[in-house]
Design brief:
The protein has 108 residues and is of the alpha+beta class. The protein contains 3 helices and 4 strands. The protein is 40% helix and 22% strand. The mean pLDDT is 86.
Length: 108
């Protein structure tokens, strides 16, 4: 993992971790699109930890333009949120159970 340098910390850089609840950053086109969007807020890639986590940094002075952005520059989650992901999984499980129950009833 990339360490923070004294220069990074002294010169007023901000850091954040951007997470995806899926392996969204595995796809180069998604990674490129996310980094382009983050760049509009002044964020640059420091390190890609894995296909679901990125470390970004920007100059603290960049936050002066945050009010002009159509998104939250401090967002830490990209893509589907945890709640929506859980609802999707539970809904899928319920649908499978219902289909299996219908098949069992129909066969008897």
């Amino acid at each position: 993992m990339t360490a923070y340098t004294n220069e990074d910390l002294v010169q007023g850089f901000e850091f954040k971790i951007l997470r995806a609840n899926t392996n969204a950053f595995r796809k180069p086109e998604v990674l490129r699109r996310v980094l382009e969007e983050e760049a509009r807020a002044g964020w640059t890639l420091v390190e890609k930890f894995d296909d679901a986590r990125l470390r970004l940094k920007r100059s603290a002075s960049t936050k002066q333009n945050d009010s002009n952005l159509p998104f939250d520059p401090y967002r830490s989650v990209y893509g589907i949120g945890q709640g929506a992901l859980v609802a999707l999984i539970l809904g899928s499980i319920a649908a499978v159970v219902i289909v299996v129950a219908i098949i069992v009833v129909a066969l008897h």
